[in-house]
Design a protein that fits this description.
Keywords: Hydrolase, Protease, Serine protease, Signal. The chain is an alpha+beta fold and 428 residues long. It contains eleven helices and 21 strands. Mean pLDDT is 85; it is low at 14-19 and 424-428. It has helices at residues 3-17, 38-54, 61-74, 85-96, 123-127, 148-155, 209-223, 241-249, 296-306, 395-408, 410-426; strands at 24-25, 31-32, 81-83, 98-101, 104-109, 112-118, 134-138, 141-142, 162-169, 172-179, 181-184, 188-192, 197-202, 228-232, 256-261, 269-272, 285-289, 311-314, 322-328, 334-343, 359-360. Helix content is 32%, strand content 25%. Strands 5, 6, 7, 8, 9 and 10 form a six-stranded antiparallel sheet that branches.
Length: 428
């Protein structure tokens, strides 16, 4: 590398670092810029020269610089990333809930590419990929030492194309062949579970999820009075903080929802409930969570738990309690930087811990013994009537109470069971 190019690379690198978004604070509150270490800058320039001239494959100067910047940012923590202009477009599509891919949320956990949750209705969910699965290989490429953006790029592609994933689960390798599709996920679904119990499922927190949720509440309210609510956040990997706040706001009318705290003033914020947005302030509520519930899902569960507003049920959550801020740079690239931790209203940090449910209920598959036989009083010949005109119940009625819900979703069945007791408990 000649001296002109060396000076150019040095200038580029210094220009990128010399104007940080967050300036250091002196004890007096005045901002000051730390001086760049000249020896390390010289080492960077020499390393750049060595790669440019001696690496086995020819690389452009821009590619080398991008890899250097990506390495600098990704080395901070699993959630910080450097985006080129093109990658920033892809990232914005992901957070909008409209993209072509297989539909999984992934995180690096102990240097293993772990699936936080499959997206509802995606190719991955339909193929049976589960939270906690570890991706070992994408197509024919081992994911070892790949950057997160490289991994996302490999899993995305044109609609209708195929990608293969080798996944480790319980010590075994399972092979999945998935067809990429356009993921246009409506993040909120709703239905009735009977007896006035409304079920709301939020698959991820997109920019408009709060509005979707409030519209879903209004829709069900027009159909019937809501006597109880199951809020299902299982395998919800998180998303937009403000959407999570809006969901909590539907259930509480005053007090703190969440606050964030970081090194700099712009990283400190707090969100409180507003009475005008509260639609279900006194309705009995059960929130379902599991190991795939992360980030914004944990904000919702933690806030409702601290306010003693809901029974949190399921299994311990993922434990992502950090806040990422996408900071645009002057030339069109951006840095997604971890800038703060978030805290529940009672000051709990969820980072690397998660939310422990009030009632730990693992998912289970129920089996029923065949050939069971029992009778009830109503089946005895000559039995007396109820006396108050109540409907008689036979053994077949008892079996129907167990129903398909207990067989297909034991956690949800338990949530409904608990909900039926909450109104009685509230009158004691």
């Amino acid at each position: 590398m000649n001296n002109t190019l060396r000076r150019q690379v040095s200038f580029i690198f210094i220009a990128l670092l010399a104007q940080p978004v967050f300036a250091a604070q002196t004890p007096e509150g005045n901002q000051e810029k730390s001086k760049l270490p000249s020896a390390e800058i010289q080492s960077f320039v020499e390393t750049f020269e060595t790669i440019r001239e001696g690496y086995v494959e020819e690389m452009s100067d821009q590619d080398i610089l991008n890899k250097a910047l990506k390495g600098m940012v990704s080395g901070l923590d699993p959630h910080s990333e450097y985006f080129t202009k093109e990658e920033l477009v892809d990232f914005n599509e992901l957070t909008s809930g409209n993209y072509a891919g297989v539909g999984v949320e992934v995180e690096m956990k102990d240097k293993r590419l772990t699936i936080v949750a499959p997206v509802d209705g995606s190719a991955a969910a339909e193929a049976g990929i589960l939270a906690g699965d570890v991706i070992v290989k994408i197509d024919n490429t081992l994911i070892t030492d790949l950057g997160m953006q490289d991994i996302v790029t490999m899993m995305r592609g044109e609609v209708g194309t195929t990608v293969t994933l080798d996944i480790e689960r319980d010590g075994e390798i399972k092979h999945f062949e998935l067809v990429r599709r356009l993921v246009e996920d409506a993040s909120v679904t709703d239905k009735w579970l009977g007896e006035g119990i409304a079920y709301f499922r939020i698959s991820q927190f997109q920019g408009d999820s709060s509005e979707e949720f409030h519209l879903a509440i209004d829709k069900l309210k027009k159909e019937n009075k809501i006597q109880g609510v199951v809020l299902d956040l299982r395998n919800n990997p998180g998303g937009v903080l403000q959407s999570a706040v809006g969901v909590v706001d539907a259930f509480i009318d005053t007090g703190m929802i969440v606050y964030t705290n970081g090194r700099h003033d712009m990283s400190k914020s707090q969100f409180t409930a507003t009475e005008k947005n509260t639609k279900l302030a006194n309705t009995p509520l059960v929130v379902l969570v599991n190991e795939g519930s992360a980030s914004a899902s944990e904000i919702v569960a933690g806030a409702l738990q601290d306010h003693q507003r809901a029974v949190i049920m399921g299994t311990e959550t993922f434990g992502k309690g950090s806040v990422q801020t996408v900071i645009p740079l002057s030339h069109g690239d951006a840095v997604k930087l971890t800038t703060a931790l978030y805290y529940t209203p009672n000051g709990r940090s969820i980072q690397a811990q998660g939310i422990t449910p009030d009632l730990v209920v693992p998912q289970a598959t129920l089996t029923f013994e065949k050939g069971q036989f029992f009778v009830k009083e109503a089946e005895l010949k000559g039995h007396l009537g109820n006396g108050t005109g109540g409907e008689e119940r036979t053994s077949s009625d008892v079996k129907s109470d167990i129903g398909e819900l207990a067989k297909t979703d034991f956690q949800l069945y338990q949530a409904v069971t608990i909900l039926k007791t909450l109104p009685k408990l509230s009158h004691k």
